[in-house]
Amino acid sequence: MKYFAAFLKMEKPELNQQYRQAHLDFLADLDEKGYIFARGPFTDGAGGLVIYQAEDETKAKQVAEQDPYLINGVRSLELHEWKKV
Description:
CATH architecture: 2-Layer Sandwich
Protein name: YCII-related domain-containing protein
Strand order of the largest sheet: 2-3-1-4
CATH superfamily: Dimeric alpha+beta barrel
CATH class: Alpha Beta
Number of strands: 4
Strand content: 35-45%
Structural class: alpha+beta
Helix content: 25-40%
Family: Belongs to the YciI family.
Pfam family, one: YCII
Low-confidence stretches: none
Organism: Terribacillus halophilus
Domain YCII-related: 14-83
């Protein structure tokens, strides 16, 4: 299993609260299914970070892009493979 850091940059803060619960529910479901290593918001309001666990980058991106924040343009995605040491 590989790790992928998903930077979720805030794009439309005015929509953040509207889709927040859907985003949190989405992540909670993935957490239960074992797709998430860690997750949380940046304290400066710039967005958040999710570290996904997946077989490859294609699968990690496929999973990440289902986030309601991304679907609704609230945040943008920057995905990088991450090496846990």
